[in-house]
């Protein structure tokens, strides 16, 4: 039998543990019992910090959402031609995803069974829509290829970016740093893999 | 109480039901009981067709794997410059994914808990490797931008393609057909979203 650790958690450090468990077991598959075991403190100690697992979920996905929406308020997202702005937002989205990997992973995996999950999905859609609007503006400027459907391009762009949560591991041997990945996504999505012909 | 249907299944039609259940509940979370309920026939009727759920998994992922590897034997994958061949394989991969959507979805979701799952993951890696080899050959021909890491490009290309299983629904109103999606993936990945400057 393991002895319960003394509760030295803050809401912040408890969140780190919870996000790990949510990502491993899925939010639906996680009970307060699982969280208590992973944190090594009693359930009542957890309730001392948060009202329950949905509050932990809300805090965790908020961190990802705030990170993403924060990008849109940065100067690079607001000035210059739309195509430059959308490239900037793409680059920064990859950087935020890498910096907040477990939180964004959780955000991308929520499935809409609770109010918090539905709210998170709604906010995520809003973010995608903001990027779609920028792509649309760039197309109107004549800076994007005319034969590309913008809604489809948005899907594929986020498909490429969001796939990072499946395979990107910052500590992996021979791994890529945030800059390399961000640059590769922007170059591939906007300029393509082919050499200029 | 529902009456069990008379067993009019063939191994093929039973597979369709099983793949649906696997994709909904996850392979690990699916029992013979779930399959029996979804098919509306008894467990012993299912055992009349297959040895168990792992055989159904093997048949299902084989269908996806055979579809993907079949592409590599097509004339378009074998002749011409490497960059043309890899564009061909990319386009056909999207088409196979769309044509075999539930089967490829299952293939992309297996997690390696059984021998069949590990085999499927291995075959999938082999396919990715074949595409990476083509990209490498295209880079050696000078047809791909020199500043792009090939391993990273392969990951991002499959990230874009595989994201289709998350959002593409062939019957969706205002949806895209297989051709449109395949063309969009190839154009975005190889030529980029930007107009030629």
From TrEMBL, chains A, B:
Q: What is this protein called?
A: TetR family transcriptional regulator
**Which portions of this protein are annotated as coiled-coil regions?**
none
Supply one GO molecular-function term.
transcription cis-regulatory region binding
Which residue numbers delimit the HTH tetR-type domain? 8-68
User: Keywords of this protein's UniProt record, alphabetized?
Assistant: DNA-binding, Transcription, Transcription regulation
User: Which InterPro entries did the record assign?
Assistant: Homeodomain-like_sf, HTH-type_TetR-like_transc_reg, HTH_TetR, KstR2_TetR_C, Tet_transcr_reg_TetR-rel_C_sf
DNA-binding region positions on the chain: 31-50
Pfam families associated with the record: TetR_C_24, TetR_N
Q: Where are the transmembrane segments?
A: none
